[in-house]
From TrEMBL:
This is Unannotated protein. Keywords: Molybdenum, Oxidoreductase. SUPFAM superfamilies: CO dehydrogenase molybdoprotein N-domain-like, Molybdenum cofactor-binding domain. InterPro entries: Ald_Oxase/Xan_DH_a/b, Ald_Oxase/Xan_DH_a/b_sf, Ald_Oxase/xanthine_DH-like, AldOxase/xan_DH_MoCoBD1, AldOxase/xan_DH_MoCoBD2, AldOxase/xan_DH_Mopterin-bd_sf. Residues 21-127 form the Aldehyde oxidase/xanthine dehydrogenase a/b hammerhead domain. The keyword Transmembrane helix does not apply. It holds the Pfam family Ald_Xan_dh_C. One of its GO terms (molecular function) is iron ion binding. The keyword Oxidoreductase applies.
């Protein structure tokens, strides 16, 4: 590799000008050309048997009996998992309000909406199961017929119990137990889901243009369901207006659209409404943790946990409804050097919208549980909470966690120390006094966490996934004019990956980033890949890109060596030239490229052109960070305002620091919303009460403070580029730090805030109870 000149620079994102000029193309921009528009008729009953579905005479109405499609049945090959089938359209049984039962077509969106209003669905209701805690009780009505024997609604029952745990637990000199509750939330991207399925009568192929994170996986899932070859379906993910995990799963609506488009030999568009998005587009984070810590000589050494995740009515493809509880089980110890571990993690069915990954998946709740545990234990032990963490953090590497994860390295203690320097603890008492004079209660909170990132096929195989995401492939060529095109299987949707990869390629090939074009999101023109999710794109796609760049660089050197009559080993690529090492003798890369294509006879022993391919499938690594937050609470209203936010993040090598900062800023904003604002609320009949932004509150500029951001760059050997994932870190650390700060602010009342979101009504109710007993 040539001397780096571009990696580490905060270059403007290459795709920003197009978006900022309003020239981006999202799915709705393609929908205007469709011959038909689809509306999905959805169940208005949470649980029941479908008696009949009747539509307008002559309307294009499709029900489950009209679809020759197999149900979506994600599989884990492990004994603690029970697979559940999700039909493309509900047939005899509906299992949540918002479940699609029929599709109706109109020539315009308005006509389709009018026809949908005329469809009559007669459902015989039964009492819905709406609480995981009630669903696991003996005698509870099963949501599906297939669960563990004697357990009506548990579909994942994971357990870890290290050797002699009970003996080690008994030897601890202090135990702390807490319960942490996370309410149901959703990714709510700015652009809802949407797709256009267009059948080409000339070729017999169908093109699905869809707002998705994993276009190759979407194609595989649809083809498996419909029993058609992959070559008959092209999937395109154009500009995507936000995803955050909610678009990495196969939508049953997409299967239906492709089937109907093929059947009618036409094109059909569907754009999800905001209320549909809330009702049906995957939820997350509804979990309850019972966590106990065993401490010995002021250090956390043992951990016991019982985790229950409400996963809704079905399993998501391809990661399954095990994604939250199994991640929680594996990663709950986080950055702490815990030696003894006993955990049970369950996925429990309910008559609610199914869950799927949302930025951070289980880790925001895991971190909340662990960091509330540490603060509570510090208070009980009379130890400074910073000191208790310092004693308990992993400090030597490599470290193997009690769940078997190998931490290659980490800067846990260094991040904590730097954050403490920035926390201005010496002036905290005065700041609290100043706030009190204004009628406010000020508190400071922190959180430390590790984020498992960039893990490849081995990690997914170990989880038991029948479909094992992980590796990435990149194909690259330099054209006759010396410009480079890279085709990637990853599918970025706003992260700036094209820019970061262009910087990486530029350094490997000794060119400028503007000479690099990156293509993604089209199954016809990119190699098979797993898309963008799980803080992995820069690590895994970046590694594959580095390998492809090196392969291309070797070909460039071979041609240049022939032109300069020297060995390729004696050449270095820099500044758009291939130079003989230690001299100014060289040849321009555009001349090399022209020769490779147009005068290939001058390069005996090799074929024409300049190409490179790369594959990368790592075991994974860990990012880590420390967040410090100061919050002011108004005891009269319960409103909490963040007045200071500090992040010390270690994401390894920063290819583009500005893009990394943006990822953390956005993640913190969503973490703030998780902690204070966002909650999906169902009533006792299974009706979702929060179906608009009037009821479900995303963060605005008013709630997100200035974020003081600092970076450590601990380089890891576990990744090819030295980079670690960073996309989810802000969301993971924020809720725990915020709730710790609120608990500190309310310490005078003796209130522990262990439930998120910590809304004003919840905080005011807790304060009112304490005031009444004074």
């Amino acid at each position: 590799m040539s001397i780096p000149t571009w990696v580490g620079r905060s270059l403007p994102r290459l795709d920003d000008p197009t978006i900022l000029r309003g020239e981006g193309r999202f799915v709705a921009d393609y929908a205007v050309d469709a011959q038909w528009h689809a509306v999905f008729v959805r169940s208005s009953v949470a649980a029941g048997t479908v008696r009949s579905i009747r539509g307008p005479v002559g309307a294009h109405l499709f029900t489950a009996s009209d679809l020759a499609a197999a149900p979506i049945t994600p599989v884990l090959t492990r004994p603690d998992y029970v697979p559940v089938a999700m039909p493309i359209l509900a047939g005899a049984v509906v299992r949540f309000i918002g479940e699609p039962v029929a599709v109706v077509l109109g020539r315009t969106p308005a006509e389709a909406e009018d026809l949908a209003e005329m469809v009559e669905v007669d459902i015989d209701p039964v009492d819905p199961v709406l609480s995981a805690q009630l669903a696991i009780r003996p005698g509870s009505r099963p949501v599906h017929d297939v669960t563990f024997p004697g357990d009506p609604n548990t579909v994942v029952d994971g357990r870890i119990h290290t050797n002699d745990f009970e003996g080690a637990w008994a030897e601890c000199d202090h135990h702390t137990t807490i319960e942490v509750v996370s309410r149901r939330q959703s990714a709510v991207p700015l652009e809802t889901r949407g797709s256009v399925a267009a059948f080409d009568r000339r070729t017999g192929r169908t093109t699905l243009t869809t707002s998705a994170q994993m276009p190759h996986v979407v194609r595989t899932g649809i083809c498996d369901s419909l029993g058609i070859p992959a070559s008959s379906l092209r999937v395109i993910a154009p500009d995507v207006g936000g995803a955050f995990g909610g678009k990495m799963t196969l939508a049953r609506e997409d299967v239906a659209l492709v089937h109907i488009a093929r059947t009618l030999r036409t094109s059909i568009a569907w754009i999800e409404t905001r209320s549909e998005n809330f009702l049906s587009a995957w939820h997350s984070r509804e979990q309850v943790y019972q966590v106990s810590g065993g401490f010995k000589e002021g250090r956390l050494v043992a951990l016991r946990a019982d985790i229950v995740a409400d996963v809704g009515a079905y399993s998501c493809y391809p990661v399954t409804f095990g994604v939250e509880p199994l991640m929680a089980m594996a990663e709950l110890p986080g950055p702490y050097a815990i030696e003894h571990y006993a955990v049970r993690a369950r996925a429990v069915l309910s008559n609610k919208c199914p869950i799927a990954p949302y930025r951070g998946v289980s880790r925001p709740v895991q971190t909340l549980a662990m960091e509330r545990l540490m603060d509570t234990a510090a208070r009980e032990l009379g130890i400074d909470p910073w000191e208790l963490r310092r004693r308990s953090l992993v400090s030597s590497f490599p470290h193997t966690s009690p769940s078997g994860l190998v931490y290659d390295e980490g800067s846990y203690t260094a991040s904590l120390a730097w954050a403490e320097d920035l926390a201005q603890r010496e002036g905290l008492a005065q700041r609290k006094a100043d706030a009190l004079r204004r009628g406010r209660l000020l508190g400071q909170g922190l959180s430390v966490f590790s984020e498992r990132t960039g893990y490849g096929t081995p990690a997914f195989a170990a989880r038991g996934m029948a479909i094992t995401p992980g590796y990435e492939r990149v194909e690259m060529d330099m054209d006759p004019s010396g410009y480079v095109t890279a085709r990637i299987g990853a599918s970025p949707h706003g992260q700036g990956l094209h820019t970061s990869l262009a910087q990486l390629i530029a350094d490997h090939l000794g060119i400028e980033p503007h000479r690099v074009r990156v293509i993604s999101g089209d199954t016809d023109s990119t190699p098979f890949g797993w898309g963008s999710f799980a803080s992995r794109s820069m690590v895994i796609c970046g590694g594959a890109t580095a390998n492809a760049s090196e392969a291309l660089a070797e070909q460039i050197k071979q041609v240049a060596g022939s032109m300069l009559e020297c060995s390729p080993r004696d050449l270095v690529l820099r500044g758009g030239y291939a130079y003989v090492v230690g001299s100014d003798v060289g040849v321009a890369l555009d001349e090399v490229a022209r020769t490779a294509y147009l005068s290939s006879h001058r390069n005996p022993g090799r074929g024409p052109g300049l190409y490179g391919q790369g594959v990368y499938d790592p075991g994974g690594t860990f990012s880590n960070a420390c967040h410090v937050v100061e919050v002011e609470v108004d005891p009269e209203t319960g409103a909490a305002e963040i007045v200071r936010y500090v992040v010390v993040e270690d994401a390894g090598v920063l290819v583009n620091p500005a893009i990394v900062d943006g990822q953390i800023h956005g993640g913190v904003a969503q973490g703030i919303a998780n902690a204070l604002l966002e909650e999906l609320v169902y009533d006792e009949h299974g009706n979702l009460l929060t179906t608009s932004f009037l009821d479900y509150l995303p963060p605005t500029a008013c709630e997100v403070p200035f974020i003081e951001l600092h970076h450590l760059e601990t380089v890891t050997d576990a990744t090819l580029t030295g980079a670690k994932g960073v996309g989810e870190g802000g969301t993971i650390g924020a809720p725990a730090a915020i709730l710790n700060a609120i608990t500190d602010a309310l310490s005078g009342y003796g209130i522990d805030v262990n439930e998120m979101p910590a809304t004003p009504s919840r905080l005011r109710a807790a304060i009112r109870i304490k005031e009444a007993t004074r």
